Each structure stands twice: as structure tokens, then as C-alpha cells.
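**User:** My hope is that you can spare some time for a protein that puzzles me. I have put the entry right below:
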Amino acid sequence: MNRKSSVLRQISPATNGQGVEATFEDGHVSFFPTEAFINRTTAQTQENRAGFAPVKTWSAGVSNHPPTVNYVDVKTGPGMADLMRLIREYGFAFIDQMPATPEASEDLLRSIGPIRDTHYGAFYDFTSDLSSKDTAYTAEALEPHTDNTYFTEPAGLQALHMLSHTGGSGGESSLVDGFAAAEQLYRQDPKAYEILSTTGVHAHASGNDGVNIQPSQAIPTLVHDKTLGVLQQVRWNNADRGGVATPFEDLKDWYDAAAQFDGILSDLKNQYWFQLQPGKMLRKIIPLCHAYDIGIADMRKVFDNWRVLHGRAAFTGKRRMCGGYSE
């Protein structure tokens, strides 16, 4: 940052048909071509931030064509670019035909980017034994949610790979497009959308000894780019939610809005259900910036934790899962 005393206060601009020529008080002359201003307009900035692929919202019908790439292609061919494009477009992708081992899963995750170390560790390999006091470590059903709402900056990417499921059944996974749900809420009740976009919500993680995590401030459920005004992040986890930062007289309005949003997320028409299998990874991710204007050896998933909510049905038996967070 420049010191106040070093900031030049007198600038004499002049146009010459090619751009703007600025003469500073010390006699220095700088030239800024017209293209430099065009590339910094709000519309162009939004286009640049949107990335190389448009967002494609979806509902339960995505089950007819779930975005999928082949493990070998990701590791040795053009599949990595395809994976990034599909995650950008849909918010999630499956990586097919990969080895059903934690080593292969961790190697693949690290090939995409650094693994984020949290109170769960870095790369995790777990069963439903409550080794961590978290609902993910149980066999209970989980409603659609995003992870890390108790962090000021939730992890952008999450990968999950079911390595085995023995002695039982159930545990189907679900995904919901949070951007599509938010758009539906806006069409249904713009005031409810505004409330969830402007009212901060506290969150916390405190189940394990020595762990008590809260974000630095109350943050709205629907987070928007402050410059462009477009939806950038959905933060929704009933299990981790704390108090709502709003006056008591406005509290009912927030809960009414939240109930509407929860109803949309719970609508089966908006939920994509599938069964994870060893060898097929699911991944959901947020790229550096994204925004939205209003057989056995077969499955691993990757998904965008700022956009796509995930859940599961209850199950019996023993499941072994692995995965991790990344940015």
C-alpha cells in the first residue's frame, strides 16, 4: 500500500483516439490504451470471473447424464481439463474406474491441488465409528448440507470415495444444486431470498475435545460477490448452525425464509440420488472464482462445496470412506 504522502494528487488526462494519456504532477506521462478500460468494465469483469465454462444448473434429471471422467484419462491424458470443466459447469463430477484404495485417492486429490488440513486431519480414511464426534462418522441419514460453515472460508473442493461397504445396505448419496435452489427461491419469494442474502448466521463445531471453531463473523446463507452482486456461495448446514444475527422482531422472517429454502432443498425433484461404489470418486469443487447470476471399481465423486449440497440415506453394516478437502 502506498503511503498517503506518496500518492500523487494532480493528474492531467488527455485522450488521443487510441486511449488516455495521463500526465502526473512530477512530469511523468503514462498511456492507457482503450482496451485497458474495456477489459475493466463490470460486464467484462463478470465474464472474466465466470471462467472458461458457463454454469449449468440442474435438478434430479441430471441422473440421466451425470458428469463423469475416466481415472486413466485424468492421470495421463486430457481428463484433468475435462474434470475441471465439468466441475465448473455442474459443481460436481465422478471419476470412474479408479483403484479402490486410499493411496490412489490421495494421489489423485493431490494432483489437483493441495489438501486442506483441518481438525479432521488432511486426507481422511474413516468408518462410522464416531472416532470424530461428527454426524458423518455415524450411520445416520444426513440431510443436504455444505461442509465447513463453521469456517470463515469453507473449503472449496471436497472429494469422497467409498472404499467398501460390508454386512449391510443403504447409504445412498444425494446431491442438490444450491445455485438452482437459490434461483427457485428468488422466483418463489424475492423477499425471502433477500433475507437469506443479508442476514448473518453463526455456526460452530465443538463436538470433539479441544475443538471449538466459529467463523470470524456471522455470515449470510447466500453469499454474493460484493462488486458484481452475483451469487457466489451457499452456506447451509442445520447441524452446525448457531444463532441468527438479527433483532428478535425479525427472527420469524428469517426462519420463514429458511423454511422455504429448506423445502426446496428437500424436494425430491431437486435431489440427485445415487449409490457410491468402490472405485468411483465424487468430487465437488469451487474454482478460484465462480459466480452465478440469477461394477465395483466404478465410483468416486468430487464436488463444489460452495455450490453443491450433499447428503445420504441411513445405512447398516460397515462402510469405509476416504477423501479430503482442497481449495
Observations:
- Residues 200 and 220 are 4 Å apart (CA to CA).
- The radius of gyration is 23 Å.
- The longest strand covers residues 157-166.
